[in-house]
Fold each of these.
Amino acid sequence: MIELPGGTFQMGSDEGLGRPEDCEGPSRPVTVEAFAITDRAVTNEEFAAFVSDTDYVSDAERYGWSHVFHLFLPGAVAARAPRPDSAQWWCAVSGAYWRAPEGPGSHVNERLDHPVVHVSFRDAAAYCRWAGGRLPTEAEWEYAARGGVAAARFPWGDELTPGGDHRCNVWQGKFPDDNSADDGWQATAPADAFEPNGYGLYNTVGNVWEWCADAWRGGRVIKGGSYLCHDSYCNRYRLAARSANSEDASSGNAGFRMARDLVHGDH
């Protein structure tokens, strides 16, 4: 975990790049106390250790299904899977859960160092309690994600690919049917892929959405965007961007990282 001293930073954005309902602005000074946060999202290997120790059953397992991106499925499976009207690229796949991310027959054996996905807010909170931590607040998450860079869209500045260099795992091509994967990844990348930010945190934009503790819009805040984000539809891979999901929701592009309080004497 990375221990951060806390302080006051500019949270949110006045650029107007987000959707009005996301309420990213106005940019405002926010103060956070000292805290610690993991340098990367919790991995499949780490979540497997939690499940092995506790016999925990995730929400996706209890419900019997989770959302899988349509291009990751055989055509016949994708064709018969139920899809939400508002996001036809998501298929409700029976048997999809964190250990079988694309449903029966898939496995995380070759992805143990990738972020765990198909975890709900409740699953993430349960892991954090087991590991002696908690989910970060939205303010803590954004403070840490910025890595000391103020008023920038990304941890490295305002340009997504400076000099043509890919700094994060997001969609390239025409969403949702053509992904050139120029950044090297069609789906999740290892949790420590790409260069870390100024505080040593990896993948604070792109790769997987990350749950935060804050309640908002009838669910919980998620931050950071994912490998499916593209500015033609979802440009929420910016540091100030935000969205929300219900506490029991799970999908193949949402994970989390853990925080904890620093008690007096920690350094």
Amino acid sequence: MLIKGPAKKVTIYVNEDTKHHHVPLYESILAFLMHHGVSGATATRAMAGFGAHHVVHTTKIEVLSYSLPIRIEFIETADKVAEVLPTLYDMVTDGLIEVHDTTVVKVAAKEKRPEPGHAHERRQGPAKLMRIFVGEADRWRGEPLYDAIVKKLRMMNISGATVYQGILGYGAKGHTHKQHFLHLSKDLPIMIAVVDSAEKLAAAAAQIEEMIEDGLIVTSDVELIRLVHKHTLEEVSDARSESR
């Protein structure tokens, strides 16, 4: 299974009319990758191109439009690439294969829908609570600091974060920040609450600390009990699909 971190990107270039056991080569390659557990692969048809034979293939010339370049690309772990590469090498008798180091930043997939009759999924265990205190007016590279922190947490696969806006408070400098119906403060207290494992929050805290000039990070031990209703899982899956 493909996970976040170092990986390999494999790109294969073949002609559309190249055959392998009487079927198009690109179809055989996709079938081979799927049957050998590759996480996913995509074949795209080019509009024009030429290869080692120096013959231009283009959709503008009908007789040459049936031999357009096909590009097959997939990303996998180094071990999986090493497993499938020898067979791909034998299959591609007229084309090009290239392999590059890459980094998987995010892996998103639909949640598996729970079986009928199960109302919710229950998770329990020790965890850490991290609370981050900043000002509403604090900025990070041109955007609100609290917004940038939430984005950073999301990229680090932290399970969730909640932003709270205070109505009254003061910090180390002794300045009082409050909201009044005659005056809307632009620097109200902001608290970001996050619950996750100790290891993940330690890594997150190290990066967030570099973003904060004036603020506070507090961690404490908690017992996590999480109930996820099956309808919630379905809504999350639908939302992820719509955002792609």
Amino acid sequence: MAVEHQESLRERKKQKTRETIARVALDLFAKNGYQRTTIAQIAEAADVSPRTVSTYFPAKEAIVFDLNGDMKERLAEALRGRPAGENTMEALRSWILSERKFWETHEEQLSCQRQVIEGDDGLIAYERAQIHEFEVLLVEALAVDLELEPDDLEPRMAASAAVAVFDLLSTEKRPEVKSEMLPVEEQMKIFDQALTFVVGGVNALREARGT
């Protein structure tokens, strides 16, 4: 039991260190620019060594996207483990709702992350690659809904439309403060409106194929 307790304390300390590095790095990226901020500066702000920063984050861009964590894995589980009778878009919405607590808790950090990403072309490209991985998950699930193969046009079109909704949410800002993201409640309202169009399109594709 003592060994387990020590391991638990060690893991919590490691997680706290990781979170501190990511938090202070985002602040520095936002203030000084992603490219101009060095690992040494991050280490000094986090009160750790540069080697520690590199141990937790071998790639600098990984620090920016640390907040995303295992989000993709959670989405994969939500889509692949959805109950019978629940379609992909319903599962997607349920997943969004399950993520809301995290988004609300980290709203300020997520807004800072958005600012940093949009200020660097390399980070935008990195994010696009991550979004593509999410899109692949949606294609696979929608192919099941439509009784098609993942490389068929219809599930790829529907997945692309769903991903476009996330693009809309990430770029939509408060009119009075352009650097701040919309509150979660407003984001969900936009998401539901857009989801109506996506669901309508998927249903039309299903009806056209008689499935």
